[in-house]
């Protein structure tokens, strides 16, 4: 490149460029002369070569020599370029031969061909990376890494070199270096994020596998000792002794040995679950009234079973297959002994937190469990949280919902209403979760119907939404109760009609709460309660519900807006005062027009209904002149919405608009609206 640039400069017609090229040539000659003198240790100390760079025109002799020098340089450059092209052709041919050998699985021949290609062209990056890939196939990882390093000298941003080097480091278990290679790929090309993530995950999995193997090897070494200890302890516990404390100590030691993957397997294979065959152990475990020593023995058994069943599905299955265990679990939960209850809850949690464990539990009769676990809300320690965790896990299971039906009205509802009535004595978080559990159980239609008919349930729920003098509402309780109420309001019965006014009043009061989640649920509950009672509608309209709903709609939150426009449509449909306030607070119906232009069918249908009701008021239609409302309503009336109330309400609103203000007819005719309106009449007739 230097020689080519020099030649172009010397041949330039521009004298300034030519002088610069001569100066560069002189400097190059000096550097080469000095280097040669140092290497040959020449006695010559004076460089007698002089180049006159200040003369613009050279004598004819000097010009002839310069032209000869330039011709030689040009010839040499051409020869070098020809040799490189020839070598590059040979290298490419050898690369293709190597690729064919690689595809055929002859990796040694591929390496030979790539090496021959590199002899022809030492700076060809592809030959290094291809040879590195062949070395990987032959498990020569160090050589592969070396070739990748040479490839990076040719091209520092070569992704393939980093990729193959990462593979080689991974094979050598150099996990840190492997990840560094993959991270470098991501720095060079961020679009390779998916590939890099897969590579990094592979490196992590390989590292984990190696560690697991090392741990397994250590466990195998310790396995024989553990097996001997488990066998000896089980034999000792099985032998007849009269001292309960002896059994307790042996079971505690056994739990410590079993508390590992190998220990769990050895416990099972040595028939450890037959421990209840010992009459003394079984008697203490099943005793209704336990002495302190029997309590200690029972707690030790529960700890042993926790160690044996943690993360082990087969052991969990075998434990519940023991008749005494499945029969005693509800008795232990209701024993009244805090230590026994705590460890029983911990054991059950091992099952409830996983789908397969829940299936094992649901093979038992759990009809009493809802009532028993719900009673733990009164506890002020960790038992309440553990019990609610179990209930939350089970509440979504259809079989559990079915089993709860029988006990709901007789056992659960009285307890639940009692808990809500004494909410101040309950653990706050646990009570909120208990309410949420009942809300989850409402997924079962029969359970929901039972709860919705219970007057005590509604009274207890409303009581939690009332602010006591000198005390603040507990947000967790309010949020959970509103969720339960929203589920119950999916039903329609006389009880809901009776409570519609107080329900609506409490929900209206909560619309000013600072927690947005509570406002959203209160709006949703309000929209479901109002259809049950015209009196409830009148009360909330007097309470300023129209202005509050418009404020929520202007805020624009989608979930809240859906309930807010539904509430407005219910009020506008049955209350003239609501219509008047809507016209007063929504100037030119800007909020309704924005909803009509949204893509939410439910919001569009309710907005059209609100508008059609308000158009019965004098002056309402005139306020919409020049607003584009005709085009909006036509688009919705003639649209293909799945919810036919969109077409129906839009057609009714359009007709009332033109009747109330004939000046809208001009735009209706211009948009061919009469034909669209006529086609929409089928929805109105069908209603």
Judged by helices, strands and strand pairing, the structural class is: mainly alpha
Radius of gyration (Å): 43 Å
Mean pLDDT: 83
The CATH class label of the domain at 223-364 is: Mainly Alpha
Largest sheet: none
The helical percent reads over 70%
Q: What's the shape?
A: flat
Number of DSSP helices?
A: 36
Distance between the termini: 87 Å
Total beta strand runs: 0
CATH superfamily name of the domain at 223-364?
Answer: Leucine-rich Repeat Variant
Looking at the overall shape, the CATH architecture of the domain at 223-364 is Alpha Horseshoe
Give the low-confidence spans. Answer: 39-58
Strand content: under 5%
Kindly report the CATH topology of the domain at 223-364: Leucine-rich Repeat Variant
Description:
The protein has 687 residues and is mostly helical. Among the domains are: 79-185, Tetratricopeptide repeat domain (Serine Threonine Protein Phosphatase 5, Tetratricopeptide repeat, Alpha Horseshoe); 223-364, Leucine-rich Repeat Variant (Alpha Horseshoe), CATH 1.25.10.10; 587-686, no CATH class. It contains 36 helices and no strands.
Give me some keywords for this one.
mainly alpha; Serine Threonine Protein Phosphatase 5, Tetratricopeptide repeat; 76% helix; TTC12 protein; ARM-type_fold; 0% strand; TPR repeat; ARM-like; 36 helices; repeat; 687 residues
Summarize the SSE layout with pairings.
Elements: H1 2-10, H2 15-40, H3 60-103, H4 107-120, H5 125-137, H6 141-154, H7 159-171, H8 175-188, H9 193-238, H10 244-258, H11 261-269, H12 279-286, H13 292-309, H14 313-320, H15 323-333, H16 338-352, H17 355-361, H18 369-374, H19 382-395, H20 398-421, H21 428-441, H22 445-453, H23 455-464, H24 475-488, H25 494-509, H26 516-529, H27 534-542, H28 545-555, H29 558-574, H30 576-585, H31 590-596, H32 601-614, H33 629-637, H34 644-660, H35 664-670, H36 673-686
Helix pairs in contact: 1-2, 1-3, 3-4, 3-5, 4-5, 5-6, 5-7, 6-7, 7-8, 8-9, 9-10, 9-11, 10-13, 13-16, 14-17, 16-17, 16-19, 19-21, 20-22, 20-23, 21-24, 23-24, 24-26, 25-26, 25-27, 26-29, 28-29, 29-30, 29-32, 31-32, 32-34, 33-34, 34-36
